[in-house]
Every structure is written in C-alpha cells, then in structure tokens.
Amino acid sequence: MQNYLIRLQQIFWWLKSNPKTVFILIIIVIGLTRCHHSSAEAPGHTRVMTVESHTISNSLFYSGTIQPLRAVAVLSPTDGVIEEMPFHYGDVVTAGELLFTINSEKFQTEYKNALIQYVKARSDLSAGKNQLVQGEFLHTNKLISDDEFKLRQTNFYNSQLAFVQAKDALAKMLNQLNINNVNLFDLSIDDIEKINAALHMQGDEQRLKMSAPSAGVALLPVKMEGGADKKLGKGEQVKQGDVLALIGDGQGVSVHINVNEYDINQIKIGQHVKISGAAFPDYVLSGVVSGVDHQAQANQSGMPNFSAEVVVAKLTPEQQKAIYMGMSAKVEIDVEEPVQIAVPIAAVTEKNGNAYVQLQDAKTGKLHEVLVHTGKTTADSVVIVDGLQAGDKIVSVN
Asked: From CA 195, how far away is CA 201, in angstroms rounded?
C-alpha cells in the first residue's frame, strides 16, 4: 500500500512538471472520443443522382464436353471379326492410315461374286459390241430389219451399264483388300487359271482393310442407345453398318449445351461465348453460337431442354496439345439486353410489398416519394420498368 501511494505521488509530480504534455494528451483523448461518437452515430451519406439508361449484360453458364468441329464415321462394310487395330482412340491419324483389319467370310463371298459378275459383264460387253458391229453391216446392206438392229443396239447399251456397275462394285471391294500380284480388271473369261487364283486368296490378301478417310483425331463411336461408349478392340465382332470410329477435325472444337425453356430466347446464332475447363486452366477459348434447336427434348427430370452448339473455329498448336476430346467444359454466354433504366439498389425502398424512390422535383428541388415497378436485379443495381425516365433526379444512399 505504501509503495502504491509513493507511485501515485511520483506520477503527480511528473504531470505537474510537464504541463504541455498533459495538455496534448487531453486534446488527443477528446478527439478520439468525438471520432468514435461520429462514426457510430452518423447516418449514411446521401447524394442526388441523374437517372440514365444502360445496356445490362447478363451471363448464362452451361456445361458440356469438348467435341471436334465435325467428324467422319468409319463404317464396317460387312460382318466380321477385328484382327488388327494399330491405333488407340484419341490418336491423331493421317488420311489413308490403316485403322482396322477385319476377317470376314461374308466379305469373301461377296468379293467372289463381284469378281465373277465383273468377268461375266466384261465378256457380255465384248460379245454385245461384236453383235452391234455385225448388225450395222447387215442393216446397211438391208439384210436385217430395223427392229433387229435396234434390238442389238439395246443389248449393247444394257451390257455397257452392267459392266459399269460390276466394275464399280469390284473396285469398292478391291480398295479394302491388299491384292498386288494381278490386275483383276484385265481378267477375261479366258483367264480361268488367274480367275481361280483370285477367287482363292490366302493370308493377308483376304483380310479387309479399313483406312482413315481423312486426317484428324480417331475417336470413340457415338454412344449407343441406353449404353456406354462402344470401345472396340482385337477379337471384337462387328456387323455391317457398325460405326468403328469417328475421325474428328481437331483444328477446332465444339460443345453441345442444353438450354432451358426460360433462357432459350436469349440464345442467338453468332453470340460470342467463352469456353473454359478445369483440365485446361491456362486457356479461355473464344467462340460463337453456331446453332440452336427450336424443338425441345425432355431431360431426365422431364423438363424441356433445347440443344445448342458453340464452336471455336481454330485452336493454336499449344491449345491442341493441352485440350483433348471428351474433356469437360464450361460455357459462358454474355447476353446483352435492350437499353433499360437501372438505379442503385440503395436508391429503392420497399413498403408493403411496393418499391419506392425519392424523386427530386425538377422545378422546386423538393423530394417526394414515387412508386416504381422493378425488374431484374444485379449485384448492385435494379432495373426500373415503370415510374422513372432518363434524366430524372433521385436520391441514393452511398
């Protein structure tokens, strides 16, 4: 207790000997006290602002997957079994590159029939031509009637058509076979040994070859109805018309999105879009809306959705290396709405379910409350549908 009294006495003598310091401390304490009360009690500042018309941008967001700009289907021409498949789905392939080797008994039967039909059609064409030449001589010398001559002409023309069809059918099959030791188009009905050899091919020559129709990315076939993507491999059985692969144009990408019925009228062809993805965070792609369906399809919940497509026409080489087909993507579409009046949210007050603003009279400068009808609201503003005009002055709270 005695030490406490001694300490107070020392403080008293120090204050007495330093009157200027005491005065400064008192001023600081008073100032801090006033600042505290001012900040706690002062209301928000108001300002008079002029109402203006604005173009309001609204962003719509959708999700989808990266797909090629366009794709060409590689179809199986017949039933068979895949024996070779020297690529992996997702590989970049060149035009004419071997994709599938298929062993097919059905194709071999069709090939043999096509070869026989070609040889026969060639023989019939040669015979028809000889008969026509003879007919011209006989008709000129009035040894056969006009009807007989016309019949020979008709037979010759029919044999020409049959030959063209047979040659085309055989050519399509030979494009998928590896036959190098004989030119089958030179065979005639007299070349029976060569025909017999061509009908009984052995080894690799009897395998069906499927090549890439164009350069691009070899992709999985489209999703089968009610199932997963059909990924093929060696030993798989395929049927005629099956899609074995899709060759996609990887120079650009497309994304299909589903738009609900409330937003579909805001999506227009040519609108600019931004495409981003978690798997390629370093790139934001700029594209456009290229197509919009105007017939809805029900989604899993039964709600109607409209399909739309956005495209990026060209990717840089760096983007092509980083962005793969099938990656997830986020699509942002900026929708610009018509010019509208928008005011800060702080300028609008609500009473009994109605919205009001403080409007300044243009002549007297006095404020009075007016009823307004509001529209869409953004993070910091609200659209005024009715009740205000551009040029009006209203009060807003900062």
From this structure: 10
Cα–chain-centroid distance for residue 125? 52
Q: Which residue has the tokens 């089968």?
A: 224
In 3D space, the residue among 337, 338, 343, 336 whose CA is nearest the CA of residue 390 turns out to be: 343
How is residue 339 annotated by DSSP?
E
Question: What backbone phi and psi angles, to 5 degrees, belong to 233?
Answer: -155, 180
For residue 395, the surrounding DSSP H or E stretch is strand 393-397
3-state SS string for 226-279:
CCCCCCCCCCCEECCCCEEEEEECCCCEEEEEEEECCCHHHCCCCCEEEEECCC
- Residues with Cβ within 8 Å of residue 78, at least 6 apart in sequence: 102, 104, 106, 107, 110, 208, 240
Give bridge partners of residue 381 from the DSSP assignment: 344
Q: Which residues contact 322 (CB under 8 A, 6 or more apart)?
A: 280, 282, 283
For all residues of the chain together, what is the average pLDDT? 82
Q: Is the distance from CB of 160 to CB of 125 less than 8 angstroms? A: yes
Q: Model confidence over 197-212: pLDDT tens digits?
A: 766 765 555 678 888 9
How far apart CA 357 and CA 134 sit, in angstroms, is: 105
Q: What residues form DSSP beta bridges with 255?
A: 66, 310
pTM of model > 0.70:
no
What order do you get walking across the sheet with 92-93 strand by strand? 71-75, 243-248, 216-219, 92-93
**Of 148, 150, 152, 163, residue with least CA distance to 130:** 152
The answer to whether the beta carbons of residues 238 and 82 sit under 8 Å apart is yes
Q: Please state the rounded mean pLDDT for residues 203-222.
A: 80
Give one DSSP letter per residue of 86-149, joined into a string.
Answer: -S-TT-EE-TT-EEEEEE-HHHHHHHHHHHHHHHHHHHHHHHHHHHHHHHHHHHHTT-S-HHHH
CB 242, CB 251: distance < 8 Å? no
**What is the rounded distance in angstroms from the CA atom of residue 30 to the CA atom of residue 40?**
16
